[in-house]
Amino acid sequence: xxxxxxxxxxxxxxxxxxxxxxxxxxxxxxxxxxxxxxxxxxxxxxxxxxxxxxxxxxxxxxxxxxxxxxxxxxxxxxxxxxxxxxxxxxxxxxxxxxxxxxxxxxxxxxxxxxxx
Amino acid sequence: xxxxxxxxxxxxxxxxxxxxxxxxxxxxxxxxxxxxxxxxxxxxxxxxxxxxxxxxxxxxxxxxxxxxxxxxxxxxxxxxxxxxxxxxxxxxxxxxxxxxxxxxxxxxxxxxxx
Lengths: 116, 114
Fold this sequence. Notes:
The structure holds 2 protein chains of 2 kinds.
Chain A (H helix, E strand, L loop, with lengths): L4 E3 L2 E4 L5 E6 L6 E8 L3 E9 L2 E5 L6 E5 L5 E5 L8 E8 L11 E2 L3 E5 L1
Parallel strand pairs in A: 2-11
Antiparallel strand pairs in A: 1-3, 3-8, 4-5, 4-9, 5-6, 7-8, 9-10, 9-11
Chain B lengths: L2 E3 L4 E5 L4 E3 L2 E3 L5 E7 L5 E7 L5 E3 L5 E5 L4 E6 L8 E10 L2 E6 L3 E6 L1
Parallel strand pairs in B: 2-12
Antiparallel strand pairs in B: 1-4, 3-9, 5-6, 5-10, 7-8, 8-9, 10-11, 10-12
């Protein structure tokens, strides 16, 4: 079974540009999560999508946005890039939480975004 | 809101020695607890998880963790460490109740010396 995939592996942008990161979840998973892992800051929750809807977002400015497509893949967009946006962006997927619990998140390898 | 504390930023152990990584959580109800491992430049791999039942949980790669409600802890253990275990380890807590947000600790970096 294929795991979570992310593209591109590396992305280099300059300040002010826009970045688009992509994620394909494990087959059968409907929830997708985005995290930012900046050096020294641990994993910071960015966004959660389920069934095409944004369910929750972390404490990030509106220039971080995304969407989930009908096939459950997802895109993260970062507008007006700043130097401090340089980080590893991790995508995770899980089954939909129908039982009221917390389903296990499975992570992709990440996209390394460098802003110059 | 839930929170996770990993008090050890960096741990060094000798190959073959035992290992215990500490994790303390804060959450009002029964938590959903996870341990993940991250090799340099890679994504996170799930080692084990606790949702309910037996408080001693077995995971992959010979790891185990014990949920202790009285101490609000979920420490990760391995009886004999291998050089390939050198990585960063993250403890995480989930809120449950259909609310999917998972909070991660800041991680513990494990160095294994020959």
